[in-house]
């Protein structure tokens, strides 16, 4: 990780869960991390924690609604003006609504597409532009995907969500191919965890807390497990392209 010291990373969805764990570890390794989310205050708290812990890097909170392209573009413009540009982009933000294919709300499907797919594509495009404008040839774009982007479980609540994650799988491989065609050494990686102990399910089942808590007895990965996979990917030699990491708790069946 030494080669990333002092360089700039963008982590979306950095206010909690996997995003917060990734942002914290990158700051520990000496990176300047722009952590974005709608909940600016929670990222501020994390930034204070990093500072008080004496980490060598810096966490810069940024409020951004990833369902709004103008806010995303404004964020990248601010990063360029204030920090030079993005060297590492971790597309972590994502959400799910329990809306099935047969009875789901169009508004829920649209929001999942906007955040889980379109925002990932926009951040990827803008991060690549930032790298190329500065002749950065060793940047890295990492998409936090899901095992739901590799198999469909018999649970109607997550079928549309799974479709968005299959899209991320395709986006990551398509990105790898386009980066190769562009004759660049910028890398693209997909990290696909199974169930992780975060606020994801409680947010998904806001209208049905009992259903969300039903997963409490299921063995899950911790956010730090996924964050450690991000560090592993970034630590790989520059010539090594890690396409996808699929990971889940050893006791998770699907």
What does this structure look like?
It holds the Pfam family adh_short. Belongs to the short-chain dehydrogenases/reductases (SDR) family. Keywords: Oxidoreductase. This protein has helices at residues 17-28, 40-52, 69-83, 106-133, 159-181, 200-204, 209-213, 223-235, and strands at residues 8-12, 32-37, 58-63, 88-91, 140-144, 187-193, 244-247. It is built from 8 helices and 7 strands; from the N terminus they run βαβαβαβαβαβαααβ. Helices cover 45% and strands 15% of the residues. The mean pLDDT is 96. It is an alpha/beta fold and 254 residues long. Strand 5, helix 5 and strand 6 form a beta-alpha-beta unit. Helix 4 packs parallel to helix 5 (159-181).
Brief summary of the model shown:
This protein is α/β, with parallel strands linked by helices. The chain has eight helices and seven strands; from the N terminus they run βαβαβαβαβαβαααβ. A seven-stranded parallel beta sheet has the order 3-2-1-4-5-6-7, sandwiched between helices.
> Helix tally?
8
Give me the strand/helix succession: EHEHEHEHEHEHHHE
Low-confidence stretches: none
Oligomer: single chain
- Record field, number of beta strands: 7
What does the largest sheet look like?
7 strands, parallel
Strand content: 5-15%
- Average per-residue pLDDT, rounded, comes to 96
Q: What would you call the structural class?
A: alpha/beta
Strand order of the largest sheet: 3-2-1-4-5-6-7
């Amino acid at each position: 990780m030494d080669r990333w010291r002092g360089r700039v990373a963008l982590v979306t969805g950095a206010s909690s869960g996997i995003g917060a764990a990734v942002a914290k570890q990158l700051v520990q390794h000496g990176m300047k991390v722009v952590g974005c989310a709608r909940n600016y205050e929670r990222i501020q708290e994390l930034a204070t924690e990093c500072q008080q812990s004496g980490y060598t890097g810096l966490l810069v909170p940024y409020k951004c609604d990833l369902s709004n392209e103008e806010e995303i573009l404004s964020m990248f413009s601010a990063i360029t003006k204030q920090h030079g540009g993005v060297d590492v982009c971790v597309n972590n933000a994502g959400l799910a609504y329990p809306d099935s294919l047969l009875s789901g709300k169009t508004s829920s499907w649209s929001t999942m597409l906007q955040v889980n797919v379109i925002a990932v594509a926009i951040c990827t495009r803008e991060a690549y532009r930032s790298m190329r404008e500065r002749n950065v040839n060793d940047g890295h774009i990492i998409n936090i995907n899901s095992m739901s982007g590799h198999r469909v479980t018999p649970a109607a609540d997550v079928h549309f969500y799974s479709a968005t994650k299959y899209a991320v799988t395709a986006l990551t491989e398509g990105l790898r191919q386009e980066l190769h065609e562009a004759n660049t050494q910028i890398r693209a990686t997909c990290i696909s965890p199974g169930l992780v102990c975060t606020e994801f399910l409680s947010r998904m089942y806001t209208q049905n807390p009992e259903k969300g808590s039903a997963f409490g007895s299921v063995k899950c990965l911790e956010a730090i497990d996924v964050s450690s996979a991000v560090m592993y990917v970034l630590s790989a030699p520059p010539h090594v392209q890690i396409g996808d990491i699929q990971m889940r708790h050893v006791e998770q069946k699907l």
